[in-house]
Design goal:
This protein is α+β, with helices and mostly antiparallel strands. The protein has an eight-stranded antiparallel beta barrel. A hairpin with a 7-residue loop joins β5 and β6. The chain starts with a helix and ends in a 10-residue tail after the last strand.
Length: 212
């Protein structure tokens, strides 16, 4: 898969080709306050997102399931109110770097993501931190992110695209972390999104060419 094909497939996913028909899926994107834990609402600190993350599991049409080794290098600028995210994915022996930017809002854990692709200038998508885990020293250990894009009104009331991502500072104990994170995601109302369509995709982190 070359870069242009990867970008083309990813763009189509974000532009709404991933339509949802299952009755269990809501017709409107959940609001952040419906998804976030009270802890996220009251005390989430975006500056603690800084650093290197591994994606352990996901449901995301922009990430082909034949790919692996997904990572996220986040640089947080509270002055510019922006998170720069170098998201990497390995497909067929090639590593692709994706230029993601997240403009912070006044709501903790809520941002508006943009993705620079050759096909379009910027694709925008709301991003919500649903829940997170914290180490004894106060650093963030894992987090769950959810993205949802509402379809244009003229297409009817429906969700055009959704995705969620389980991020962790380590992949060494992924088998133990993923069930915990899935349980936390379901507790916040993401169960229908997890159960719709294909199973939760577990990201492979062996034999990686970058960041491992």
């Amino acid at each position: 898969m070359n870069l242009s094909l990867y970008a083309f497939a990813s763009t189509f996913a974000l532009l709404g080709t991933h339509s949802l028909t299952d009755a269990a899926i809501p017709t409107k994107c959940p609001k952040p306050e419906q998804l976030q834990t009270d802890t996220v609402k009251k005390s989430f600190d975006e500056s603690k997102m800084e650093g290197f993350w591994y994606e352990l599991a996901m449901k995301d049409a922009t990430q082909p399931r034949v790919c692996k080794c997904q990572t996220s290098q986040k640089i947080v600028s509270l002055i510019e109110r922006e998170i720069r995210d170098d998201f990497t994915i390995e497909c067929y022996g090639n590593v692709y770097h994706n230029d993601l930017r997240f403009n912070l809002t006044d709501v903790p854990g809520v941002s508006v993501g943009t993705w620079k692709l050759p096909v379009v200038d910027r694709i925008r998508f709301p991003n919500t931190v649903v829940d997170y885990g914290e180490n004894a020293d106060g650093t963030y250990d894992w987090m769950i992110e959810f993205q949802c894009v509402q379809a244009p009104d003229w297409t009817g009331e429906r969700i055009a695209f959704y995705a969620f991502n389980f991020y962790s500072r380590t992949y060494a104990d992924a088998d133990e972390r993923i069930p915990v994170m899935e349980s936390r995601a379901r507790a916040r109302g993401l169960g229908p999104f997890i159960d719709e369509g294909r199973d939760l995709a577990i990201v492979e982190h062996s034999g990686c060419l970058y960041g491992h």
